[in-house]
Specification:
Blueprint (H helix, E strand, L loop, with lengths): L5 H8 L14 E5 L2 E4 L4 E4 L2 H4 L8 H12 L12 H14 L4 E6 L2 H16 L3 E5 L8 H5 L15 E5 L14 H19 L6 E4 L15 H12 L2 E5 L24 E4 L10 E6 H4 L14 H16 L2 H20 L5 E7 L2 E6 L9 H14 L1 E2 L1 E3 L5 E4 L7 H21 L1
Parallel strand pairs: 3-13, 5-6, 5-7, 7-8, 8-9
Antiparallel strand pairs: 1-2, 2-3, 4-10, 9-10, 11-12, 12-15, 14-15
Helix pairs in contact: 3-10, 4-10, 7-8, 11-13, 12-13
The chain binds pyridoxal-5'-phosphate (PLP).
The site of pyridoxal-5'-phosphate (PLP) has 15 residues, from helix 5.
Length: about 425
């Protein structure tokens, strides 16, 4: 309970469909590096980073100073009707990093708006509102973004401006394709795509939108190479590929800078959000000029790429590069993944330890099968918090513990968090 009963005040004025974590929700009042402190003075190692968004960590001097420099100019906002130096610089960096040739960048405030913009562009370019999306996906909370979201728990309305046909995900633990090994799963997914095109679409289709690793879906990844195999079929029809990199971007997966690179293909459009602002509202879409320029009317975002967010974004990307955080994600992520596999893979309740770099998950099931166990997951989640570690939850059935710590996580912090997590899992399993 917070001293001024913040929880009661929260519940009195904020909607209940916006959930709070933990039986006894916490207010974070201070942060430094990878650690946060709550209103009761308890300290936590943060393995979730405000949902993969505090990508560099808390109170990073280089980012704070860049934002303060911009604030001191007095221009917090000007609108995109005027030239914004920070925005142009950031667009240059993002375009270069994107891997997309002759790229244009449009900035928004959230991942939802970024995907909305990608869908706007794709539907205009292709003169079609037919979209292919993937089961178990999450792309945001607007009507179009919800419309391509394949998770009922996150689909607050069935109203949909798009016509959507659904593909199988790369789910390994359950679902039709899970019965197959990696190579066969790619073949089956391609066959599925051909069948969906033949049976559920008519005429031109605008795009396929997919996450390289499904975030909200519980860090479910298709076999590497699936996007390239899909793209061969898409190219036969001129259908665009949109890679939603809101969770997988900026080196988080360790092995690559973008999730799409594991698939050996470059998408036509790429959306980004979360980590690039390290907490400042910053997101956007990148695409080839001919695609991104297809919007036939004025479309602008009042706050998208504003001077303060863009200053933060520039500082974040400089910090990432200067400290080679992608390499750190690979190195420290391996410590966590190997340690977790060694310590809990033997448990019947652990269906899978999965992920790449610093994007890792543990899926919990009832022993002897693949029936999800959200209750056990909840106990592990609370036990982590009691032990001083913040983690996330996810998965279609709420039975996945997710970790997306700042990419600056040190080896010592990884080992410290690992010990808390392993203890939380082992004690929760015994208590079942
Ligand atoms: C893959 C993905 N796309 C889009 C979104 C939506 O982003 P936002 O919450 O910033 O609108 C999210 C948010 O979790 C996401 O994980």
């Amino acid at each position: 309970m917070t001293s001024d009963d913040l929880l009661a005040r929260h519940r009195a004025v904020l909607p209940s469909w916006m959930p709070l974590y933990y039986d006894d929700p916490i207010e974070l009042v201070a942060g430094s590096g990878r650690r946060v402190t709550d209103a009761q003075g308890r300290s936590y190692l943060d393995f979730f980073g405000g949902v993969l968004t505090n990508m560099i960590g808390y109170d990073i001097p280089e980012i704070r100073e860049a934002v303060e420099r911009q604030l001191r100019t007095g221009v917090v906002h000007s609108s995109t009707l005027y030239l914004i130096r920070q925005q142009v610089e950031l667009a240059e960096k993002v375009a270069r990093l994107s891997g997309i040739p002759d790229a244009r960048v449009f900035f928004t405030n959230s991942g939802t708006e970024a995907n909305e913009a990608a869908l706007l562009v794709a539907t205009n370019f292709r003169r079609s509102h037919q979209i292919l999306a993937v089961r178990n996906s999450y792309h945001g909370r607007s009507y179009a973004a919800m419309g391509v979201t394949g998770n009922r728990n996150w689909t607050a309305s069935a109203l949909n401006p798009l016509q959507v046909a659904w593909l199988h995900s790369g789910e390994r633990v359950r679902g039709l394709l899970s019965r197959l090994d990696s190579a066969d799963r790619i073949d089956a997914a391609v066959e599925d795509l051909r069948e969906v095109l033949a049976t559920q679409t008519a005429g031109d289709v605008a795009c396929l939108i997919a996450e390289p690793i499904q975030g909200v879906g519980g860090f479910v990844a298709p076999p590497d190479g699936l996007f390239a195999a899909w793209k061969k079929v898409l190219d036969e029809h001129g259908i665009l590929l949109v890679s939603d990199e809101v969770q997988t971007g900026w080196g988080r997966t360790g092995e690559h800078f973008w999730g799409y690179q594991a698939h050996g293909v470059t998408p036509d459009l790429l959306t980004f959000a979360k980590g690039v602002g390290n907490g400042f509202a910053l997101a956007g879409v990148v695409g080839r000029a001919e695609v991104l320029e297809s919007v036939p009317a004025i479309s602008f975002s009042t706050f998208g790429g504003n001077p303060v967010s863009a200053a933060a974004g520039n500082a974040v990307l400089d910090y990432l590069r200067d400290h080679d955080l992608q390499a750190n994600a690979a190195r420290v992520g391996a410590i966590l993944a190997d340690g977790l596999r060694a310590a809990v893979s033997d448990l019947d309740q652990v269906a899978e330890v999965r992920g790449k770099g610093l994007m890792l998950a543990v899926e919990f099931v009832r022993p002897g099968g693949s029936e999800p166990d959200p209750a056990l997951t909840g106990r592990v989640f609370e036990a982590c918090r009691a032990g001083g570690l913040l983690v996330g939850k996810g998965g279609l059935y709420g039975n996945v513990v997710r970790m997306g710590p700042p990419l600056t996580l040190t080896e010592e912090e990884a080992r410290e968090g690992l010990a808390i997590l392993v203890d939380a899992i082992r004690t929760s399993v015994v208590a079942a």
